[in-house]
Amino acid sequence: MSQITEAIDVVPNPAPPLPGIAREMEIRYYTASQFQLMWWKFKKHRLALIGMSLLAVFVFIALFAEFLSPYGPAVRTPNYLFGGPQVLHFVDAEGKFHLRPFTYALAAAMDPETFLLEVKEDTGEPWPVYFFVKGDPYKMWGLIESDIHLFGVEEGHLHLLGTDQLGRDILSRLFHATRTSLTIGVVGLVISFFLGLIIGGISGFFGGGIDDAIQRFIEFIRSIPTLPLWMALAAALPKEWSPQRVYFTITILLGLLGWTHLARRVRGKLLSLREEDFVVAARIAGSSDARIISRHLLPSFLSYIIVDLSISFPYMILAETSLSFIGLGLRAPVISWGTLLQDAQNIQAIALYPWLFTPVAFVIISVMAFSFVGDGMRDAADPYSR
Amino acid sequence: MAKYLLQRLIIMIVMLAALSVIVFVTIELPPGDYADRRALDLRSQGVLVTEKDLVAMRHQFGLDRPWYQRYVKWITDIIFHGNFGISFGYHRPVADLLAERVGLTVLLAIATIIFTYGLAIPIGIYSAIRQYSLGDYAATIVGYFGMATPSFMLALILLYFSVMVFNNSVGGLFSSQYAEAPWSWAKFVDLLRHLWVPALVLGLAGTAFEIRTMRATMLDEKNKLYVTAARAKGLPEWKLLLKYPVRVALNPIASTIGWELTAIIAGAPLVSFVLALPDTGPLFLRSLLDQDIYLSGAILLMYSTLTILGTFLSDVLLALLDPRIRYGERI
Q1: What is the rounded average pLDDT of the residues A61-73?
Q2: Cβ contact, residue pair B270, A351, below 8 Å
Q3: Shortest CA distance to B176 belongs to which of B284, B278, B280, B281?
Q4: What pTM was computed for the model?
Q5: Nearest residue to B302 via CA among B102, B8, B108
């Protein structure tokens, strides 16, 4: 009891009959739904909240990639190949402050001593940055046609994260890649969700010989070094397949990757719940197996499943990134974090064009955000944790 | 104990057999067969290959037989003759290619395991007895980062810093003067000097995980009554820690060696590729990209065998550590 009241930070304990607002809080606590309780507990986990807001940003980027990115993902700036990140200025060469940020025109010149190409800012020619500028036309979600971008320049070019070897804007490509990588993760997750639910459900609900067989099978799968096997399978995809078909197949492959953990969890929960009174009561009342599973068993361990899903999401993203990184996963023109990182494979690229490296930050931040959220949800879903 | 070991051994053999079937399937998946490849090879050398030759070749190699017969031939060749087939890309027997590089992969895996546990156990113990100290927090933060960063990206980041800050690449396993030299003590020392980088990269995620496990179990154990009793009897603190709670806390750690090894083997090809190590990793990726199926199949089989062997060893280790398992109790 003392723990419970502490958890909502309001009710002093032991307490005389409570007047007013505190009493109301206590009533709210006892009448709250399971998810409400979890949310209250989740809110106290600061890292998880940070992770959650980061994820919200990622989802926002994925949803509105076309609008947020200043250029189309395949649009080239031919005179700015392998261009470094441009810096936003507020103060010009004379030391005057401008509210509207601007960037300078860039001029490349050969250094007469080292013969290296050096890029210098031409402080005489500022390129002001505007919000809601007209730029490359796009069709958002394949539906809404527009050419308005959140920010951009009207003259010159603006590449905040630099450009790649073809002069394409890395920031814009990164935004589009976020969409691909996140959707792949989500679809893969849905597939492994159903696989885990069905296989784990069968294993736990029927028990006996079926259960034994499935458990041995899961143990077997977990002892395979999955990534090399998946690499081998991905390599076996015919070379002449279209990028879209490869994309689709890779997603399914990733879905086949993550279900074992979930299946185990579902089975364990089912085995312990199966003997509970309410299940026995439902069976005596003549409910069918399907009804018992969907109406009585599933709701009581749904929260655990959600937690497990959020924990296995990073593995999907990482698997996609690793596969694409070595050229076995997605292929151009599909843009994902992994395909972007292909450009940063070798030492020369890293040394000469370090901005090609920025997708790594996106991957690490998203994976960490997911781990934080997963941790927070695990604590929140556990009724015995404080 | 003997019964337990025998049982584990049988499971291991069954798993190996099942795995070999899976590997065989991945070999068979790409369109075209060995005869097609061979014909392509011969044609590129200017030899005329007719449809009739192809049929004859298929018969000669036994490719016209059903898949299970081919599987039996493939696996018996491997087991009894050490014959893994011929690599298309290198025009050499796969077994020779493997023999050159397997040693380094195994060495890398072992080094990583030693690194992982050598760091995780002391740090875990320290984190638990000095809970909420600066060192404990540092270990937690490094742990989060380590678990979030896939090993190949960690390798990239290390490369990045080694190039940008130290102006020197951390890639490779040998200094240039030893790369082609025959094995000697000096070369071995040189190898060890390079080996810690890939071992660190591969082991960080596992180390982070094991530190957390070790810390959690130690926290559970260190306040139990038997520890208090031992302390009351006047045992020196370090001896007491090592003799009682640490021994209990080692169990969950030992039981995950198999998984650790699986994870290490799974991450190794990419890390070797990024760091340009002369082991099987780059060979594996190359063979996959070229659909050099006998080579990639052999390496995949080797990786799987390594992990299953590792799982077996960790089972044995666990039995040695935990009498309940030794005497066949279920826990």
Answers
A1: 83
A2: no
A3: B278
A4: 0.75
A5: B102
